[in-house]
Amino acid sequence: MKPFVLLATRAEDLPADEEYELFLRYTGLAPEQLIRVRLEAGPMPELNLDELSGIFVGGGPFNASDPPDQKSPVQHRVEADFHTVLTEVVARDFPFLGACYGVGTVGAFLGATIDRTYSEPISVVSLSVTDAGAADPLLHDMPSTFGAFVGHKEAISKLPDSATLLVSSATCPVQMFRVGENVYATQFHPELDVEGITTRIHAYAEHGYFAADELELTLSAVRATSVSHPSRILRAFVQRYAR
């Protein structure tokens, strides 16, 4: 089998390593089948799409909607690298699934409106599958509504006509979309379980996702509801595109 690639941007080793382990666990891939690239540590390597089964993107600290003068040199480099990769990915309709930061990367590439209108605190939200989503191969095994972990400062407030809305919620209309037949992005985190999001809550406690005195409240919020369905999307992606 040709390997998949996980493009990651987390600078903190603990959540970065755990993110990779979660992708391995819920995709069912072995380490040699999922190549991790830490883009915060260096430039994007040359990716020969003919030698890959597909591309995953994990979450990260960057916000596409931040003013250019507030973005670090690393963020500018990462965004340029993603634009180069997505130019080929979208043109070829190559299998791609971006989780959380996937919305920022794919959305920005498409010219979607990305702002802080529909930001969500770290929590579990109820998502609804659209009619188009119910017919999509990655979601055919999902219930019409399901809970998922979220936590983001920005989101897409206007999706371009070139994209198909697959999953929505009352608090954030664009939770998952598809471009063409094979390029996907989610606002929620299909890779996370409660242990994983607990690690991130502690790791990013001072990054502005919640107030300094809301740590325990945030931990309680993600433990209040069982989340088990979103990871099926990762396994479905691998089953569909492994070659």
From TrEMBL:
Name this protein carries in UniProt: Glutamine amidotransferase
Coiled-coil spans in chain: none
InterPro entries in alphabetical order: ChyE-like, Class_I_gatase-like, GATASE
Keyword field: Glutamine amidotransferase
Lineage: Bacteria, Bacillati, Actinomycetota, Actinomycetes, Micrococcales
Domain Glutamine amidotransferase: 49-193
Native source organism of the sequence: Microbacterium marmarense
Pfam (any one): GATase
Gene3D superfamilies: 3.40.50.880
